[in-house]
## 1
Amino acid sequence: MCREGCSAAKVYFFCRMRKSATLVPLVLLCALAYAQQSPPSSGPATTLKVDVRLVNVYVTVSDAHGAPVGGLKKENFTLQEDGRDQKIAVFDKESALPLSIALAVDTSLSTRHDLPLELASAKRFAHAILRPIDALSVYGFNEIVHQSVGFTSDLKRIDEGIDHIRLGAATALYDAIYVTSRSLDRRQGRKIIVLITDGGDTVSKVDYKEALRAAEEAEALVYSIIIVPIESSAGRETGGEHALIQLSEDTGGKYYYATSMAQLDDAFRKISDELRTQYLLAYYPSQRTSFSDFRRIQVGIAGVADSAAYRVRHRAGYYTVKSDF
C-alpha cells in the first residue's frame, strides 16, 4: 500500500509494479492518498481572516447625585468604536456574573498609622461583597508586591491573608497594578482591582503607561481608595493621586478619597453598590478604519428621561495587540 506522504512518481512506480487483479483498486487508493497530502496547485492560495473577537464593555451608569442607575435596557444604550456605530450583540445586567477581585493594600512606611484600620475595613468589604461564585485575592505592596492569598471565596482564608500583610519601606504602586492585572488576565467574568494607597510611587520597575496598559489588557476596572491622613499635608503626593484618578477613569473604575475610617467604609460600600448594578455590553467590531492598535470605545444613553444628567463610565478602549511587558 501507498503510505502517507507518497509522491506522484512513487504512486506511478508502485502501481506499475503490481500485476494482480487488485491493480485498479490500488491505483484509486494511492491517488486518493496523494490527493489528501497534496493541495491543488491551480493558483496561489488565499487565506481569509475573519475577526471574531467579542469585545466586552462593562458599564456603570450614575445619576446626578452619583447613585448607580439600574433597570436600563439594551435599547437605552448606544455604542461606538472609533466613532463608528456598533451593534450590541450581548447585553446583560452584571449582578449575576462572577467577580474576581484583586485587593492591593499599600504597606509602605507612609501608611503605617492607618494600616490597621485599612485592613479591618478591607475585611468588612470582603465579607459584604463576596458570593460563592466570586473570588478575591489579597496583595500587600511596599518595595515589593506580595500575594498573601490567591483567588478564593473562603472568607477565613481571606481574613488570614489580610492579617499577614506586613509593613515595608518604599512603595511600588505601579508594580502592584501590573502584577494584579496579570493575575486577572485569565480569569472569567468581571475583573476588579481595588487599591488602598496614599498615591505615592517610589521604586516601581514599570511606569504608569505600562501599568495602565496591563489593566486595560486584563479588562480590569480599577477602584482607587486614596488615603489622605492630613489633607493639607505639605508632603502629600498629589502627582500620584492624579495618576490614580486618571487610571481609574480610563479603566471604567472610580476613585475615592478617605480621611477617616467612616469614609473608608463608605468607599467600600459604594464600590459594592456599583458592582451590583453594572451592565455588560458586548459587540463584534465592524470594519476598522484606524491603523492604531488601540481602539477607542464610546457608550451613550438614549431614550431615557433626564439622561443628560447621567454619567456613563467604562473603559476607554482596548488593544488589538498584546504587549510584551
## 2
Amino acid sequence: MKKIIIGLLFLTQVAFGQSNNRQFIGLSIGPSFPLSDFSKSQLGDSTSGFAKTGIAMSFNYAYRVSHNFGFQLIINYSSNSLNNSKYKKELESEHPNYGVSVESTKNWSSGGLFLGPYLRFPISENFSWDIRTLAGYFGSYSPNATIRTTNKNDLNDKGEYYLVSSRASNFGYILGTGFKYKVGSYYVMLFGDYLQSTLKFKDVTGWDLDGEPYNVTFNQRISHFTVTGGVGYIL
C-alpha cells in the first residue's frame, strides 16, 4: 500500500511537472446563430424550430499531449428565444379571421458535455490556430408560449392557448476552430463552433386553437453556429 501511494505521488509530480503550458481552462461567451430546421419558421412543417439568434456560453478544459495534439472537455449552454413575430404571422395566415398575439415565456435552452481531440498549429510563439472535434451528451428544453386570439368579426370571441415546455436529450457533436493568443499566464480566445443534435421531445402538452388539449411527440434537429470570445488561464 505504501509503495502504491508513493507511486501515485510520483506520477502526480511527473504529470504536473510536465504540464507547463500544456493545460488551460477557459470561459467564453458570444452569439448563437440557429441554422437549418432550428431556424425554420413554417407552421405547417413540424421540423420548424422558430429559433432566433441567442446567446452562448462555453467552459472548456484542454490538455495538450504533444506539440500539436491534445484533448478538450467542453461544457456549453445556449439560449435561443422563440421568434414570436414569425409564429404570429404563420398563425394569422392559417386563421385569417383572427388577430393573434404570441408571448413566449421560456426560450429554447440547451446545453451539453463534450469530449474530443484538437489540433494546434502555432503561428508564432504566442499565437496559435486550433481545430477541434468533440462528441457527447446534449439536452434541451423547448419553449413555453402563450397565444391569444381575437375574432375580427366578433371582438367578444377571444381565446388563450398554450405551448408547454418539454425536455429531451441525445448524442450531439461539435466541429470548431479558433485562435488563442498568449498573454502571460492567460490566453485570449476566439472560436467558432458548429453544434448539431437531433432530439425527440415526448409528451409535449398544450391547448390548440380549437380549445382542445393535446399530447404529442416530435423530433427537432437543433443546429447552431456560435462565435465566442473569452479568456483562458494556463495551468
## 3
Amino acid sequence: MQILANIIPYFISQVENFSRRERISFAYLSIENVLGFSKSDCILKNDFKINKKDIKSLINIVNQLKKNVPIQYIFEETIFYNLKFKLNKSTLIPRNETEELVKWVLQYKFNSLFDIGTGSGCIPISIAKNSNSIISALDISLDALEIAKINAMYHNVKVDFICDDIFSYIPKRKYDIIISNPPYVLKSEKVFMSKHVLDHEPHSALFVDDSNPIIFYERIIKLSSDYLNDNGMLFFEINEKYSGDIIKILSKYNFVDIELKKDINDRDRMIKAVMK
C-alpha cells in the first residue's frame, strides 16, 4: 500500500466481513479522512506516494473494520440530512429512515418541537437548521447529550437539551410537534442483526423486551395527549410489526388523521397523528 492506487484493492482484500460495495465505500471515506483526497483525486493522483504515518493510519482503520467496528465510530462522525454529526458509542448511528422522518416533519408549519430520545441530536438539529421553531430534546444518556450539544454548537443552532427519563419527565410547556425514534427492536431479533451493530451500538437505544415491545410508544402517546397543542402532530419511527397496536393506542387517546408512511424499502416505518 505504497501508492494511492493500492488502497482500494487493499480494503477489498482485507475487510471480508463487509460487502464489496461497503469495502469500496470505506476505502474512499478513509482516503478522504486520512489523505484529504476526493474520489476524483483518486483517479488524477493514483500514483501519489503515501507516507508511513498515513499508511499506519489506514492499516489501523482496516484492523478496526475487521473487528466489526462501524466506520462511523472509527471516524467518530457521520452525515445525516446533508449535515455532519459527531458520534460516540453512546449514540446510535443515524439511519436513512430517520432522514425520511425529518423530511416528512419539515413539510409542515410549526413553531415548537420536542424530540424524545435524541441521541446525537440529529433530528432536532436537522430540523433547527431548516426551520425557525423553538426546539427541545430529551435523552436519558448524559454522554449522548454531550455529543448532541457539540453538534448543536457546530451547526450554530439552539436546542434545549434535557437529561431525564421519559417515564418520569414532565414537560414544562406544550408543543406543536412531538417526535421520537424510540427503541423498538425486539431483544429476540438480536440473532438476525449484524455484529457491527450488536457489538458496538448502544443496546439501550435499540432494544425493547419482547414482553412489552411498545412501552415507549404508550408512554409518549399518553404524554403527547397532554402536551401537544390543539392540532399538534406526533411523529414516530416504528417497528412495522406493531403499527396496528400503535394506531389503536393513538385512537384511544383521541388522536385523528393517523397516517402510516413507507420508507425507501416499502415498509411501514413512520407514523403521524394529529391531536384534536
